[in-house]
Amino acid sequence: MNTNLSMFADLYQFTMMYGYYKTGKMDDEVAFDLFFRKNPFQNGYTIAAGLETVIQYIQNLSFSESEIEFLKSTGIFQDERFFDYLKNLSFTGDLYAVPEGTIVFPNEPIIKVKTRLFEAQFIETALLTQIGHQSLIATKANRMVKVSKGKPILEFGARRAQGVESAVLGSRAAIIGGCSSTSNVKAGKEFNLMISGTHAHSWIMSFESELEAFRSYAELFPDQLILLVDTYDTLKSGLPNAIKIFKQVFKKHGKPQKYGIRLDSGDLAYLSKKARESLDQSGFYDAIIVASNELDEYTIRELESQDAKIDAYGVGTKLITAYDQPALGCVYKLASEKINNKWVPKIKRSENPEKITNPCLKKVVRFVNEDKNEALVDLIMLEDEKIPSQPFEVFDPIHTWKRKIVQQCKWFELLQPIYLKGGLVYQSPSISEIVDNVKENLDQFSKEHKRFSKPHVYHVDLSQKLWDMKMKLLAEIK
Amino acid sequence: MNTNLSMFADLYQFTMMYGYYKTGKMDDEVAFDLFFRKNPFQNGYTIAAGLETVIQYIQNLSFSESEIEFLKSTGIFQDERFFDYLKNLSFTGDLYAVPEGTIVFPNEPIIKVKTRLFEAQFIETALLTQIGHQSLIATKANRMVKVSKGKPILEFGARRAQGVESAVLGSRAAIIGGCSSTSNVKAGKEFNLMISGTHAHSWIMSFESELEAFRSYAELFPDQLILLVDTYDTLKSGLPNAIKIFKQVFKKHGKPQKYGIRLDSGDLAYLSKKARESLDQSGFYDAIIVASNELDEYTIRELESQDAKIDAYGVGTKLITAYDQPALGCVYKLASEKINNKWVPKIKRSENPEKITNPCLKKVVRFVNEDKNEALVDLIMLEDEKIPSQPFEVFDPIHTWKRKIVQQCKWFELLQPIYLKGGLVYQSPSISEIVDNVKENLDQFSKEHKRFSKPHVYHVDLSQKLWDMKMKLLAEIK
């Protein structure tokens, strides 16, 4: 996925860039914030992901001759010098972002872009697409991990994804969210992910009998022996055949490193219990039972609450497409513009109050109780504002009577420098470092904030100065 | 999107290929069917799409050294000669498919692969992903087109797609489904699609006032003048400012080729009527009103039923992600295997009756009433079965008492040869030819089958011979 994606932008980015060029505004310094307005899936938080592909995108920004020719052919851009600026386009400014795996919340900037209007405008589409998609899948995966009581969640969704790239980057995001492995070999290679998989129904069907298919498979893979038992009849055929094979393998090769069955249809709670009984009766206490078939976090939770005898869950469609909410809905809004060498805050009003933007150059500071190591509030502040000395009071930006005292807290800024003056100053962490980051981040939140159903709403407040500025600007709009 | 996707497969495809190699089955000839089990979105039909990328995928099949090394490093494949077969992998058999834009129905094969088991198994994942995704989006787009009463549907979803490729191929599918244009420049270039777009809120916000922003825009694009009017206040600010600008432009340049406003928030029915009134009062009868903001086919239908004064709809998230059903759920099932030079039918049973597969080498024949040019039934037949002479009777494969006489019908086969003996024998049509194909296809279906709500269920039946064979095989499974 290293291809040059420079042409990936909405047409209006190009028309606006042309407009900024023609009106002499292209070099104006501006600040844009990327954020989302609501946690997906009624989850209490969102896991940020996608920064690595954003960096790749920015590193590879450049237009080929044929791309320039295509843009010329649209007839939209009359002034040919515009294309010279496009040809020389690269990212020359600052970009701050939360590292992948950071727990984030609605309305706080997860990327802040501070650069020339020309390029800040241009990168909007690609940033939104990549961060939105990958954060969504990471969060969805984490919901499944949350309810599986420590049992591995295996990502199996490649065939049901919205295209190949969506499957590959989705696998990576699923691992970030806590999945143990993916079936997607391309993703495994590109991102160094654990891959897993055994065989499909077609393997069974291509042999004269199920037993023969199992036996052949066992001879080839005696140490990784997960047999799919539902091609003809799970309890009457698949399971007894699998047990026969396990006996043969134990006799011939000894105990496999890993062995068991996969259930892929029918009543998984019932079948898993029946299968567990039969396996145990034959002495195969450590044979594992993998279950799949349109699983999502709700079904997994249901199965766990029924004490289903399932040791690992394979999830496909519902994870890789984030089935019940397939878009996070990230937005990218102008927050400030440097006019006559002075930063001027910008705001967008809206009929829908939740769509009013937060103006100004900002930073996001997380305050974490030192004793409990428990996050108390994220405070969105002016970029140059001093961190107040504790104790101090914060308040909900809408229901301003909701107030809270911040004390005995350590704090840190969420947004880290990724680009400074066009130079990449950030070393992307490995996948396992990102996975660790998720765990460390989650450790800093209370059970109530992480709860599966109706979680506590985490506080994201504005500093008094920012709030005052926002109110002032809203009052000024006629 | 021409990259080599050879590594894009579930790991179990590789383990099974290894198994087929080790058990001497790799060269067995087999037939697989690709199909889906349910029309998406409760629509009465599905529009097939994705064949062009499937062809690209097959044309580019080949493993690089680093890919082979990666597979070796997994430690799963003990016999090194396997990798020589992988290195030489190419598609050597036959592949039949319905052309893009064909109207298709549940359970009928839309791709039939007839080749060596080794390669037939391998291509499963990529075929499912590409056909599933693109057919889904084409169908979703068509639902929006269906309810908009001829008003253009503009695809705006790039930023909300599940990744860049999903946005690009989704745009193409949206155009196949009937959208008029896309905002996605990359898709426009790669597939020769009409692109459209004007400006965003950030354009307005980057100027000192809305009026100044409009004026600058109008000076640059006096002939493509769609002004976004909701940055501050649609009726109090955006609309009167737009009208001022239109007056100035008319005076200075004459009437623009295209001009109007875009509404992007608030009550679109109400605002469009208010806007229409004001524009008409100022004499701008042909100013168009574009509406956007989380639109889907239900909202568009609602707006139309309220006689909203909207001339074009911009749709984003809900189309590009197929929001209410983000996966079609295509499957790929073994139908037959050549054993001792004789084709042996294969079937998969299931606890869920709808998941039982149709065995045998098959063809799909559509019977269309000659007088009315109206499709009557799709008949799935044995590949070598003769088309019966009319009149003849067909019957529902589940409720066999539901019968129907086929008479005075022309017929044609849905599956066309794409590859024969590994050679590409198909010339992919242009996008406009595919769009025409959709129209011609839809013309052959009754209004009841195309109805938006609770459409007639179109008959997809099995020939008597195929049905008999299926019953026989089911009875034989112990």
Automatic annotation (TrEMBL), chains A, B:
Q: In what way is this protein post-translationally modified?
A: Transiently phosphorylated on a His residue during the reaction cycle. Phosphorylation strongly increases the affinity for substrates and increases the rate of nicotinate D-ribonucleotide production. Dephosphorylation regenerates the low-affinity form of the enzyme, leading to product release.
GO cellular component, as recorded = cytosol
Question: What broad class of enzyme is this?
Answer: ligase
Question: Entry's InterPro entries?
Answer: Aldolase_TIM (IPR013785), N/Namide_PRibTrfase (IPR041525), NAPRTase_C (IPR041619), NAPRTase_N (IPR040727), Nic_PRibTrfase-Fam (IPR007229), Nic_PRibTrfase_pncB (IPR006405), Nicotinate_pribotase-like_C (IPR036068)
Q: Which GO terms describe its biological process?
A: NAD+ biosynthetic process via the salvage pathway
* The enzyme's E.C. designation: 6.3.4.21
| Annotated Nicotinate phosphoribosyltransferase C-terminal domain residues | 362-470
Q: Which keywords does this chain's UniProt record carry?
A: Glycosyltransferase, Ligase, Phosphoprotein, Pyridine nucleotide biosynthesis, Transferase
**In this protein, which residues make up the domain named Nicotinate phosphoribosyltransferase N-terminal?**
8-131
- Domain (Nicotinate/nicotinamide phosphoribosyltransferase) ranges: 154-348
Q: What does this protein do?
A: Catalyzes the first step in the biosynthesis of NAD from nicotinic acid, the ATP-dependent synthesis of beta-nicotinate D-ribonucleotide from nicotinate and 5-phospho-D-ribose 1-phosphate.
Q: What is this protein called?
A: Nicotinate phosphoribosyltransferase
